[in-house]
Amino acid sequence: xxxxxxxxxxxxxxxxxxxxxxxxxxxxxxxxxxxxxxxxxxxxxxxxxxxxxxxxxxxxxxxxxxxxxxxxxxxxxxxxxxxxxxxxxxxxxxxxxxxxxxxxxxxxxxxxxxxxxxxxxxxxxxxxxxxxxxxxxxxxxxxxxxxxxxxxxxxxxxxxxxxxxxxxxxxxxxxxxxxxxxxxxxxxxxxxxxxxxxxxxxxxxxxxxxxxxxxxxxxxxxxxxxxxxxxxxxxxxxxxxxxxxxxxxxxxxxxxxxxxxxxxxxxxxxxxxxxxxxxxxxxxxxxxxxxxxxxxxxxxxxxxxxxxxxxxxxxxxxxxxxxxxxxxxxxxxxxxxxxxxxxxxxxxxxxxxxxxxxxxxxxxxxxxxxxxxxxxxxxxxxxxxxxxxxxxxxxxxxxxxxxxxxxxxxxxxxxxxxxxxxxxxxxxxxxxxxxxxxxxxxxxxxxxxxxxxxxxxxxxxxxxxxxxxxxxxxxxxxxxxxxxxxxxxxxxxxxxxxxxxxxxxxxxxxxxxxxxxxxxxxxxxxxxxxxxxxxxxxxxxxxxxxxxxxxxxxxxxxxxxxxxxxxxxxxxxxxxxxxxxxxxxxxxxxxxxxxxxxxxxxxxxxxxxxxxxxxxxxxxxxxxxxxxxxxxxxxxxxxxxxxxxxxxxxxxxxxxxxxxxxxxxxxxxxxxxxxxxxxxxxxxxxxxxxxxxxxxxxxxxxxxxxxxxxxxxxxxxxxxxxxxxxxxxxxxxxxxxxxxxxxxxxxxxxxxxxxxxxxxxxxxxxxxxxxxxxxxxxxxxxxxxxxxxxxxxxxxxxxxxxxxxxxxxxxxxxxxxxxxxxxxxxxxxxxxxxxxxxxxxxxxxxxxxxxxxxxxxxxxxxxxxxxxxxxxxxxxxxxxxxxxxxxxxxxxxxxxxxxxxxxxxxxxxxxxxxxxxxxxxxxxxxxxxxxxxxxxxxxxxxxxxxxxxxxxxxxxxxxxxxxxxxxxxxxxxxxxxxxxxxxxxxxxxxxxxxxxxxxxxxxxxxxxxxxxxxxxxxxxxxxxxxxxxxxxxxxxxxxxxxxx
Length: 1044
Description:
- Residues about 1-35, about 390-420, about 535-545, about 640-645, about 895-900, about 935-965 and about 1035-1044 have low confidence and may be disordered.
- Helix 17 runs parallel beside helix 20 (about 435-450).
- The relative contact order is 0.04.
- Helices cover about 60% and strands about 0% of the residues.
- It is mostly helical.
- It contains 48 helices and 2 strands.
- The longest helix is centred in the middle third of the chain and has 41 residues, at about 490-530.
């Protein structure tokens, strides 16, 4: 009605623009003692779209009414437009309205009256004209005629005109209340003609909403005046206050002039009964929807049990989607202002009504049912809750209450359709396909359900069943994970509430589970002591009820990134998880496990598996992980042979998961540079005293436990050099070099890195490395890795070779040419690496796109340099053997088409031009760089430098390979490797055992080096190329070259 206009004023002459607002008042603050999460759900649930009110008269969603048709020639006066009428003088206006009055009031034919009223409707659609006309004598005339007339056509036109005036006017004088308009419109609701009842329902609805709004505002104004009197200090000039008071009193008096009999409300609500005209029903439901939006006294008149039942019937049976939407919105708004209505809906109709509404094709119905579900989750009865949680399909609607369905509408579920008690599948569909508002409210509904009962958490985070569609309840975690990326602020606020609700539930579940397990263990032990040991408690269903039934929710929540993202970073949560795993471990050692132990153990394994997938989050809670979780995991690694339960597959799975989680938590923590000193000390103590002594047994355990044992050992030795001594004391070093074989099943990258750590450590003597056959084994592995491009093996294998050569060089330096036994062993140990000379050379020339960072070329170049210094003649023979073999094949003419040698391929890959051809940056800005031998690669104290240190020896500023300014770029490492390779070529070329032959192939190699020196912008590479070319020239006397 008129409330849909901007405002209704305090008097007819100058209506106040602020006396009537369309939007309902804000909800009052909830009691301060209410739980903060419940309050957040309630506040966030009230979206602005839930409170909007729409017009009743001329609402196209209810009924599309044709425009009035009238004959201007049949009018007994000259027709004016609304603009012309308002522009007329007061005298002309009164004269015009008198003519209209006489045309309708006198005993003229009904057709003339209908024609005049049809024309008059065109004047009623403007706020200014409606304010004039509704407060004139014409309105009183229309009321009298409506009471007296029985002609349907005239009654339809009269109610239409009155409805338009009520909709568009912003102020109505109290005199209209005494005209009997309410009783007349109530009587019209009983008319036999459908059109009369429709117009009467719409007009009465507009009037009732206007009256309800006026009285609600008067009550609010009175409350505000009382509050101001209590809180405001007396003002010197009270004129403004008195004017406001008088205006409020006048508005209250005007509102009090309307007295609505109970029979009027009852007659309107009877229109909601089944079998009534749907359009008249829609007008009545719209009236109730608008009125209950305000709350207060008027809302209570329309929120009775009978009204609720009638509106539910419309939601579940109406043909019109718009009518179902309005009815559902009415239930939503009633539940907002009336907890009694919410309780009735949930206790009487259960989740059946909710599920039916959530599956309705109308978004308005879906949004309304989401509101009802979120507000009413706490009112679900035990039977309805059990049916919903069991989630078994049933014939027909209804869950724990009256069955609901729609038999006549094919677009919605029918009464006989197979449906489900649980709202979760429907919520999953809305989360996946609904609008942002629907998805946000679905999240709030989930939060409310979890707040109602923690068992909902099991259903929310359930794993999807095989063959289930995207709209199944099991797909909820996946769907919710996708919502994290949504940018809608309302949706993100709702998701945050759900996360907080779940995060609050997890510690409670942990506490209840721990208490229940301890209680059951104590009871089992007491029974065992008394001789009552007939139950072993291994049945699956023993823990179907009680706190243990909730335990799986913990792992399911943590597996969901969006819901469990912050849970695992909490120190208390990780401590609780450690306690749960420890008590599961202790219970597995009991001779008579408690009732429900089998299921609890499987759930603990599921939790452990989830933790292993979220190890980075666990490591963030460093204190709890160090002091609680990792010690428990270490206990789980020990196999207890005396207990049958410790020997089954679950125990092996537990050891594997515990070992995997230990690796993924412990090793990254040890690599943190900012790790607290106490934390690092505790981790190292656990590693040396507990974890390392457990590895011999783990290496002989079931696959893939040995793999992760090697990973733990390799990472530990890289992080802690002192652990090498512990490994040696355990007698494990020979075993790892035994694994370093192409045929061994444990020959993996972890074992290679482990051998690297041992080779560089002073805890392993050089004599031991010789006994292990280190040189021969790493030679085979390195050759295989290079030929088959097994990149993970390449870097650590090169590191082993370089470390072995370095340690051999130290032995020979100490021998000082005496030819002792250890020196002879050193030569024998590194001799197998001669087969890798060409591999070293080719790897030294690798570019950034062929390896990650400069580690591989630097390690290869340094290994080649060391090999050349230890065995110069043999290395020279290896490097030039390919060249000489090609010469023999082409008869010394250098024309063989067998392909280029390794030496030629390496030279071709060196320098800026070669880098640019690989789409890599050149080396012109890198400046002069030392050869690899210019750096300290070993010595006392810290042992031989490992390849990680070498990776950053070439950069003072860090950064990725090829990044940054050349002077501080890791590209300097590539330059150093290439310089070293060229210098080794020069040294080997000058060896006395190198064949001295004038051949085209050697000449071509020299010329290539000369061109490299001429074109290369990096001075270090250019000078090394000159030295190499000169060395090649020395092998072929008399060959004439243009020089450098």
